[in-house]
Amino acid sequence: MATRTKSSGLSARIDRGAKPSVTPRPGEYQCDPLLWASWLYHHDEMTQSQIADLMGVSRATVVNYLQQAREQHYVKVVVRPELLNTIDLAQRLKSAFGLGECMVIPSDGGLRPPSERIGRAGAQYLDQELSNGDVLGVAWGHTVLALAENLPEKIMPESSVVQVIGSQRGAYDGFTAEECVAFIARRLHARSINLHAPASLSSAALRDALLLEPTIQEQFTRIRSCNKLLFGICTVKTNSLVFASGLISVEESKYFIAKGAVGVIAGRFYDAQGKWIRGTMDDRMIGITLDDVLKVPTRIAVAGGPDKTDAILGALRGGLPTALITDEPTARNILNRL
């Protein structure tokens, strides 16, 4: 059950129980007082003082009830994500790069990592964007995992969530493509389809041999059937996840950087214009290519932070995302480069 405040894009969803059928007398609780207070405040739009009088408690107690309800997930307060499309920064980015959708969340002054905050915003966007029957391709990254962990639960049994880059398991503790796919599939009650192969192999010959396997071919057929794609954007700096994951060494990346690489999507390096820079690493990789990315109708990038301006700008110039979820400082940095 969701209700919207009168003046903004906020909504509050009461997640436990149903509306009480009997109004309580002061001091008499028909059910959990946290639920009573939450319902009366968010659904009936009563003031805290009115609720205190009705429940026979102090206003401070009602404030405490409402805070506990938030902490215990009785109530989830959500900003309607479509409103974030309307602000000036989002409109300017949409116009400059031909984006279909753009969400720009405000800065919090650096209190929390951008990946966590943008992931939460991306979860709200994806919740509205998905339809039962979608085939959603998922790459990997800090922000993608934050999105997965915050995605509202939906029932989408006819949908599939597809891993689009091979495994990095064993090379990095966390943020693997398998984890991102598994989280999202569980939240959607959808089918999870993993790519049962390493992301990077020791030789091109071995990669080519694996690509001939019927199981791998079937999985790539599913990857190419995706109508939506979700991905993060990595930088080429030494602290980037692309290096921490063991996908490529800093030494091997020097070839791509010398060619002008500014960013990485699903393990593929690209330049300031968003053009794919091919190298010997690509001959050893199992996963979606940037040519494949461009064939997916809806391509959702979740990325932001002060060090990612060049990488995101390059991706936008190359038309790699059709939708971008980012934060205010990053949006301003990108627009200042135009």
Could you characterize the architecture of this molecule?
The structure is a single chain. This protein has 338 residues and is of the alpha/beta class. The chain folds into 2 domains: 2-77, Arc Repressor Mutant, subunit A, CATH 1.10.10.60; 81-336, 3-Layer(aba) Sandwich (Rossmann fold), CATH 3.40.50. The protein is built from 14 helices and 12 strands. It has helices spanning 33-43, 48-55, 59-71, 88-97, 114-129, 142-150, 177-188, 204-211, 214-223, 241-244, 250-258, 290-293, 309-317, 328-336; strands at 2-4, 10-14, 75-79, 101-105, 135-138, 160-163, 191-193, 228-231, 261-265, 268-271, 298-302, 323-327. The strands form 3 sheets. Strands 4-12-11-8-5-6-7 form a 7-stranded parallel β-sheet, sandwiched between helices. A 3-stranded antiparallel β-sheet has the order 1-2-3. A two-stranded antiparallel sheet has the order 9-10. Helix 6 (142-150) links the parallel strand 5 and strand 6 (160-163). The longest helix has 16 residues, at 114-129. The chain is globular, with a radius of gyration of 23 Å. The chain starts with a strand and ends with a helix. 45% of the residues are buried.
